[in-house]
Structure formats: structure tokens, C-alpha cells
Amino acid sequence: MNAPPAEPDATHRMIDPRVLDPRGDVVDYLAMNDAEVTQVVRVLAAMRRWREAEEQMSLHSRNHMKLNETDMKAAHLFLQSLPPRPAGGR
Asked: Are 2 and 17 in contact (CB under 8 A)?
């Protein structure tokens, strides 16, 4: 029980707490069953894919708008500072 999957893919191995934290110092996975730990690894893998897609989209936007990373961060902060618009409104 609580052993790493037999043949996980590289992404899962890189984020599996049973591999990265074998003593359970950061994640107390010993209190979870194998199915729960596997689900945690799947969620972490999905979050990683989301972040990679977000970075790819940001790079594409920066290239399209011919902005550097600092300019994109400034634009993001500016947009975040605007008051919210009503739903469906212009």
C-alpha cells in the first residue's frame, strides 16, 4: 500500500509525493489509500498541464502584440485594477 504506481508516466513521477517526499514530510500520504494518492497525482498533473497551457497562451499573446513579459504583466495589472463590469453589459 502507498507505493508509487508500477509504470507512471514521467509527469506523474515528477509530482508524485510518494517519489518526491518518501518520508511524508510535506504530504501526509500515508493516511491516504492508493486510490486517493493516485487522484491527488492526477489533479496535480492537470494543474501542471493547465499552467503550461497558460504559459503557452501568454507567450503567443506577447508575440502577437509584440510585448515583452514586463509589458504583459503591466497590462494584466492594469486590467485587474479596472472596476468589474456588469454581466452581459458593455
From this structure: no
Domain membership flag for residue 63: yes
Q: What is the DSSP string of 12-31?
A: HHHH-HHHH-TT-SSS-GGG
Position 34 in a domain: yes
Q: Is residue 2 part of a domain?
A: no
Task: Write out the chain's pLDDT in tens, 90 residues.
Answer: 455 444 456 666 778 888 888 888 877 888 889 899 889 888 888 998 999 999 999 899 889 989 888 998 898 899 999 998 888 766
CA distances to 58, 76, 78, 80, 82 from 85, rounded to whole Å, are: 23, 16, 15, 12, 9
Q: Specify whether the CB–CB gap between 1 and 38 falls below 8 A.
A: no
Whether 58 is covered by a domain: the verdict is yes
